[in-house]
């Protein structure tokens, strides 16, 4: 690891993965999300991009980052969300020179991550077998829509399709009989995020196995968006496997807890969850509805689940008599779990977000300041206190190729058709 580099690492970097180098050949979201986690944890993440074009995610906008003159740059907010703490190197994998440079970088790396279509990198000599032959210690992770095996392995996968296929949409939204009812996707690229998160965890586990067992060899990791999303169905999948009942859509409600829902107040809505019978009794008292706690229809959670509609109506009739602010203050005094339904603007303006340092600001190479949502991982002895802006395409090509491959500026200019930064 260099004494100091533009990606924020140094010999004094105390982050837990400082000293680990990741060769990142991922695009769009699932892979970049996973490698950003590794970068936040201190790994030196070298992002390989196509010269003159870069990651397709750069063009997924608007909005685009504004520079110091308030003019839009070429950096989309989508790209910025998953590419901080990385260095960008522009190499064309279709050329012998590009392939050779990537293999030489892989020789000096601990991790190789890619999310190309299954089998595509083999024709460039950049598949696991080829890379492991020159670096047996490499941890090589492939992220794909459906995995490296099975009848769908050759298919591409996008988040909305994976959400649909894995049952997410079947349990999200209002019941068919209600106005606006029907399957609904989650408003995040959930399947991509789950695959990237599982990839980051698996990579760290494989590094630990490599460095604590005899032989010190790496291994191959096969991460599928389909697998990751099915695993993340968690209690909903367990509900079906245990009972044989297909989980239904409950809108903002919960299938096994009542009350747990959004409730209308005089001027808006709040969410209230009473997770046990004691909390439910306290809720009834706070709402001046103490008699409800002794009603046979509501005396335990199991019967409240059965009678959820009548209970919802009874609670909401009372809640409509006062404002959101009134009820949130009342319920907080009673130590009950409730919260407003915020927009993102509201959420990021919450005093808790400020106290936790959720938003960080760093200068971007194209000019202007890029706001970033900080990592949620808070480590006391090895804090994640380095944040560098997502790179422009090829921003670090000369730096990385000189540092790791000993190439001169002239060599780089003569051998690679890289993008301007």
From TrEMBL:
Domain of life where this protein originates: Bacteria
Presence of keyword Transferase: yes
Keywords: Transferase
UniProt keyword Transferase, yes or no: yes
Protein name, UniProt field: CoA transferase
């Amino acid at each position: 690891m260099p004494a100091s580099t533009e990606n924020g690492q140094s010999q004094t970097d105390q982050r837990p993965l400082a000293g680990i180098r990741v060769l990142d050949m991922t695009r769009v979201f699932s892979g970049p999300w996973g490698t950003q986690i590794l970068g936040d944890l201190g790994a030196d993440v070298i992002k390989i991009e196509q010269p003159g074009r870069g990651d397709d995610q750069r063009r997924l906008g608007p909005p685009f980052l504004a520079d110091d003159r308030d003019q839009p740059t070429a950096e989309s907010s989508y790209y910025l969300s998953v590419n901080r703490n990385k260095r960008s190197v522009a190499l064309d994998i279709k050329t012998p020179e590009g392939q050779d440079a990537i293999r030489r970088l892989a020789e000096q790396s601990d991790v190789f991550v890619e999310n190309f279509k299954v089998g595509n990198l083999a024709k460039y000599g950049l598949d696991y077998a080829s890379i492991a032959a020159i670096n047996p210690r490499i941890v090589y992770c492939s992220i794909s829509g459906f995995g490296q095996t099975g009848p769908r392995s050759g298919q591409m996968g996008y988040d909305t399709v994976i959400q649909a296929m894995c049952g997410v949409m079947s349990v999200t939204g209002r019941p068919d009989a209600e106005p606006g009812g029907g399957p609904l996707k989650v408003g995040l690229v959930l399947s991509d995020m789950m695959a990237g998160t599982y990839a980051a965890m698996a990579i760290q586990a494989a590094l630990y196995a490599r460095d604590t067992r005899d032989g010190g060899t790496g291994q191959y990791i096969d991460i599928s968006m389909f697998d990751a999303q099915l695993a993340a169905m968690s209690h909903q999948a367990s509900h079906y496997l245990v009972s044989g009942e297909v989980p239904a859509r409950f809108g903002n409600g919960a299938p096994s807890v009542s009350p747990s829902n959004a409730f209308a107040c005089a001027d808006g809505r709040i969410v209230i969850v009473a997770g046990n019978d004691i909390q439910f009794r306290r809720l009834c008292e706070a709402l001046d509805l103490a008699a409800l706690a002794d009603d046979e229809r509501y005396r335990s959670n199991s019967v409240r689940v059965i009678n959820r509609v009548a209970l919802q109506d009874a609670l909401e009739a009372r809640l409509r008599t006062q404002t959101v602010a009134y009820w949130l203050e009342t319920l907080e005094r009673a130590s009950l779990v409730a919260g407003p339904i915020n927009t993102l603007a509201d959420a990021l303006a919450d005093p808790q977000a400020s106290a936790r340092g959720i938003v960080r600001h760093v200068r971007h190479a194209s000019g202007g300041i890029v706001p970033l949502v900080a990592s949620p991982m808070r480590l006391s002895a090895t804090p994640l206190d380095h944040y560098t802006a997502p790179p422009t395409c090829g921003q670090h090509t000369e730096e990385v190729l000189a540092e790791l491959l000993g190439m001169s500026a002239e060599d780089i200019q003569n051998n690679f058709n890289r993008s301007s930064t």
